[in-house]
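TL;DR need structure tokens for one chain.
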Amino acid sequence: MTDASATAPRRPGEQALTALGLGAPALDPADASPHTFPDGGRWRTEIPSCEGPEALAVVLKESSRLDVPIHRISQGSGVWMLSDAEITEMVEATAARDIELCLFTGPRGTWDIGGSTRTDSGGGGLRARGHDAVAGCVEDAVRATELGVKCLLVADEGVLWTLHRARSAGIIPADTTLKVSALVGPVNPASFAVYERLGADSVNVPSDLTLDHLTEIRRVSAAPMDMYIEAPDDLGGYVRMYEVAELIRRGAPLYLKFGLSKSPGIYPYGHHLRELTLATAKERVRRGRLALDLLARHGAGGDMAPLGTRLPGSLNRFEISS
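>> reply
TL;DR here they are.
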């Protein structure tokens, strides 16, 4: 990837539009996020929807071919949809490249027997319904971390708080990171701050948040933010590649997630979806290359966090009572 940090960043079409009398207003320095990852980097990368060892192998091969740096790889079907051998293979493959592997925890409402999620209102959405669903998420977390997984995806506030307490108590490793799913992501600064205090180490926000919304969040929280630069159709199908530099400026520390619009859902994954899953995994990496090329062309490709970094730094938490 071209090192563009030595040149002044420019906005898309800036020179041509200015020459035509159509230049944009100057950026307001007050809108910029003052926060970074612990190492000083302002952005990391993530390839989502990597549903098993075979898809992971495709992603790793394509990232090497296209020179796409990857900090995190995440999976959406869930720990329970993978065998111990498959999890171990994924842990070993990502560890060899110093990439964080993130697996989704347990039962979620959209797959449960509860009918409310199939109503127009959506009911409780992906949240864990009842004690047994929470227990399933905890079971997944313990099993995954015992096999070497260091990052867990959650879609329920109670599960998040429970797993945060579990790592504080030594039930799961203290350096386990907890990531809030895009499927329940907060849409205002107050709720974002609550997720941070409940134990989130990174928080997916919906891809339709405006730039001003990101600035509002950054005025109350420094927790890493995850955002689909291109969102899958079930999350809106938004494509925001030309905004990447400004998303980083407003939202840092930010994980750039390279999703894929115009592709069917693949959760929960099985072999019957193999060809689609492998093809879309490969294309997500290519989309990442396109976004990084845009950053480089605009002179905004600097400030990437070093590869191999994964921890979020010091964050605000609710007190855990004994």
